[in-house]
Structures are given as C-alpha cells and as structure tokens.
Amino acid sequence: xxxxxxxxxxxxxxxxxxxxxxxxxxxxxxxxxxxxxxxxxxxxxxxxxxxxxxxxxxxxxxxxxxxxxxxxxxxxxxxxxxxxxxxxxxxxxxxxxxxxxxxxxxxxxxxxxxxxxxxxxxxxxxxxxxxxxxxxxxxxxxxxxxxxxxxxxxxxxxxxxxxxxxxxxxxxxxxxxxxxxxxxxxxxxxxxxxxxxxxxxxxxxxxxxxxxxxxxxxxxxxxxxxxxxxxxxxxxxxxxxxxxxxxxxxxxxxxxxxxxxxxxxxxxxxxxxxxxxxxxxxxxxxxxxxxxxxxxxxxxxxxx
Length: 304
Ligand code: SAH
Ligand code: AVI
Description:
- The protein has helices at about 5-10, 25-35, 40-60, 80-85, 100-110, 155-165, 185-190, 195-210, 270-280; strands spanning about 65-70, 90-95, 115, 120, 140-145, 170-180, 220-230, 235-240, 245-250, 250-255, 260-265, 285-290, 295-304.
- By secondary structure, it is α/β, with parallel strands linked by helices.
- Strands 1, 2, 3, 4, 5, 6, 12 and 13 form an 8-stranded mixed β-sheet that branches.
- The radius of gyration is 19 Å and the shape is globular.
- It binds S-adenosyl-L-homocysteine and N,N-dimethyl-L-histidine.
C-alpha cells in the first residue's frame, strides 16, 4: 500500500498507530545504535555475550560455507562473529534504511574481501522477489536483536513461516529474542535516563513527515513506554502535549492534547513461546543458547 494511505489508515484507527518501520531513516538508525550502548538497554550486550560464550557451539551447529541472509541488518555488526567463524560464501543484509545499509555493507565488504556482499534495501514485510538474484546454496537466515518481537504474534508466525521456506530443509534460522522478565528492567530499557529512546520515538514523526509530506511537530509529542506483562510486550507511545492539527496527503487530522499514538510493540518471549512459533512453521528448535543472566535467547530453528 502507498505509505501516505497506510499512515492515514493507521492514524485513523480507534487507537492511532504508526508502524515501527517508520523509526528507521539514517538518523533513526544512528539513534538505535546509541540505544544499544545505553546502560539500561541490556539486549545487545546480552546477545553479544551469548556469542562470546558459545561461538564454538553456534558455529558447529550452523556448519560452514553458507549464504547468510540478515533481515533488519542495521549496522551489520552482529554478524561479524559468524563471518569470522563460519566463513560463509555470501552475506545478504536487508534493511529499509537504504543509506545506512549501503555504508554498513560497504564497510563489511572492505573488512571481508573474500565475502560476496549483496545489500538489499527493501521492506522485509513485502515479497522477497530479490531472492531470485542471490547466489545458490544452503541458506542461514540470521535474525538477531529481537526484531521479530516488533511484529504482533500472528505476524511473527507468518514471518517465521516465510523464513522457513527461504531456508528449506538444508538451512536454518538463527533467531535472537529477548526473554520475558521483571517489568522494571524492561521499562528502564525502553525509557532510559538520557532520553535517547525518547528521541528515537519522536524521530518517527520526522520520518513520517519526510516520507508522506505530513507536518507533525515532533517536539510537541512526549515519549512513553510501559510493559504490559499480560501481553508480554513493551508498548511504546507518543502523547500529544497540546492540540495538534496535521495535514497528510491533503487530509487534515486533529489530535487533541493527550492523544496517544502507539508506535511500537516489543514482544518478549519464553522458551515455550519460541518452541510454539517454530512448531507453527513446521520447524524445531534444534539448539538454543542463553547469556549468563538468562535475559536473552539465541535459538537455531530447522525444518522438522
Ligand atoms: N539487527 C540489528 C538492528 C536491529 S534494529 C541489531 O540487532 O542490532 C531493526 C532493524 O530492522 C533496523 O536496522 C531497521 O532499519 C530494520 N527494519 C525495521 N523494519 C524493517 C522492515 N519492515 N523492512 C526492512 N528492514 C526493517
Ligand atoms: C529493533 N527492536 C528489536 C528494538 C526493540 O528493542 O524492540 C527497537 C527499540 N525500540 C526501543 N528501543 C529499541
């Protein structure tokens, strides 16, 4: 769907929403990179610790010489241990933030001269026609960072089903997901003291302005994040600080003071929910690894 129509439709819902894909232009990608270094945002460090502790095991489970496909590759830094240890023939980073992707992929290609790097600037929720152009071979989809958790549960299932087809019976999905835990730790991770997550959240309105010609005033919106422990998800929102009139695609929308726009769900997982997701796609969790505090899980899913 055309982005202007999509934005108008989701903002007109009973609970106005914007898709988290609008977080990511180059500025949004930089802000996300800053988030990953925050003391409160343990996810990236916990996942890195899993690689530090278990790389031999992970590499053995994956085998060598594969094609690694990474949806939502960001700065392409998480794949490094895999590139070093499993020596794949090709690496295919896919990301919606094109300029940030080109720069990250170019650095990766320079650093690994024997690796074929094909960067794909695309929305990974759309059809993966680009697969026709990538080299043939056994495929590993590397999907770290708990980006799967930004989909709602039925979309998570659809996405894993699609990835199951991409990897076939020979390959696998190496999936990194954040685990359910106490609300305070989670809320801190999404509402840091330095206000970087707030800036990341508000930047979404600047991205929507750039992509649809809308005229949101980002500074008139306040960041809010709460853990909904029943739904096992962080709900990130923007709250209007005054009455706002916004024009998008020739339509005028009025948001009274206190109006909430839901910008992100970040679902948290349990071992059982990871296994259920795999099973719904006809896959099995053949291996899994945790960090020392059991905050984060890296799982290898293979077709049963
Ligand atoms: N994998 C990295 C980055 C995670 S941030 C890490 O774990 O640190 C999520 C990434 O997914 C961003 O780089 C963002 O641009 C990308 N992304 C989000 N929605 C997307 C979509 N619909 N299609 C393609 N990329 C998307
Ligand atoms: C990319 N994604 C997994 C992040 C998350 O934790 O849900 C995005 C993010 N939102 C706020 N902080 C980080």
